[in-house]
Amino acid sequence: MHDISIISMVFTAVLALLCLFLILTPFFKWDSFLNFSAKGQDLVGTKEALLTTLNELEFEYKMDKISHVDYKSLKNQYESQVALIMKEEEQMVDDHVDKDLLADVEREIEEQMRELLKKKGEGK
């Protein structure tokens, strides 16, 4: 009988902790701890949110809901944040671009252009 009460107490404690965990889980951002989201996706989402905010800001200004001073201040703030994000995206792209492949593609394009110009010159 004594063994049953210890087992039931342990089972009850585990069940209570599990319930507490399930209730509190939505209040925490687990992806910040687990690092599931990619930085590039975060930048794109943030940039889209800022651009949407800029559009809404302009709409509110045109509807005379905010003053000209507030509009200019907020617009400059959001535009500078978008510019920083775009610079970060550009750096990420530059880091992933194969420089040798890019040079080969550019050489091939120039070669194709020369051949096209030769054919045009012969056709005249």
Automatic annotation (TrEMBL):
Organism domain of life: Bacteria
Membrane spanning stretches: 6-28
Lineage, top ranks: Bacteria, Bacillati, Bacillota, Bacilli, Bacillales
Organism: Neobacillus ginsengisoli
Keyword set, alphabetical order: Coiled coil, Membrane, Transmembrane, Transmembrane helix
Keyword Transmembrane: yes
Chain segments annotated as coiled-coil in the UniProt record: 71-122
Protein name according to UniProt: C-type cytochrome biogenesis protein CcmI
